[in-house]
Structures are given as C-alpha cells and as structure tokens.
Amino acid sequence: MIKIMDYICDDVLKYITTFNRCSDNIILKHTSKHINKIIPCKGSKYKNLFGCSKHIHHDDVSFVINTLNCYSNVKKFDYVIHFQSQRQLMIAEKYLADFGKISHFCCSNKGVVYHDKNSKLSSIHYLNNRNNYL
What we know:
It is built from five helices and five strands. The chain is an alpha+beta fold and 134 residues long.
C-alpha cells in the first residue's frame, strides 16, 4: 500500500500541519514515519487531560498539564499552585483535589492554596469560595 504522505515534500507537509490543532498533528504522527519526523508536536497528558508539550507557551491546556505533572513529581510540596490565568485554573480545577484539601483560591483566582496546619495562609476562611473573585 502506497502512503501519499511519504511522497509529499517536507515544506508542503510542514505548511499543511500549521493549519491543524496539536491534537490532530499528534494523531497524524502515527500515520507515517516521514510525517513523524516533520511534525514538532509531542503529546503530553495528566490523567485524562491531553495536550502538546512542544507548544506549552501557546496553549493553556498544555501549560496546565505541565504544571500538574511538575507538582505531582515534587517531593516537598509548598501547598500553593499558581497558574498564569483564570482560564488555566478552570481547566485544572477538576484535578486540584489530587494534591490535597483546598483551603482557598488566591491571586485573583489564578492560584490555589491547600490546607497545611503549619501555614497561616490556610487559616483564611473568607476566601474559600472561588466565586468571591468573580
């Protein structure tokens, strides 16, 4: 069986992939060894959240995946996770309970503070609801 992707020049393939989302490009990578070498996208995941680790600064989902993976691998957790935007926090919201019991949201709804009996920050109860910032 002839694979058409193996006969298209590299520049045309690169141009075609610029119109695709990263998730589409990651799927395309599995169709041909040739296209696998051309597409820069690289899949990343945290549980059932999928993104592209090569385009982390252009994609909120990928940034969230990287942040969650980073904190899940940290041995000494400082009980605070910060994101760059409220949208990123909303994407991560269903996974935040993986890191402990949430005390409150902070930094204009871009961060989350977890309960820590040794921290004065976790005793602030009036910020418990994320809707206080909206």
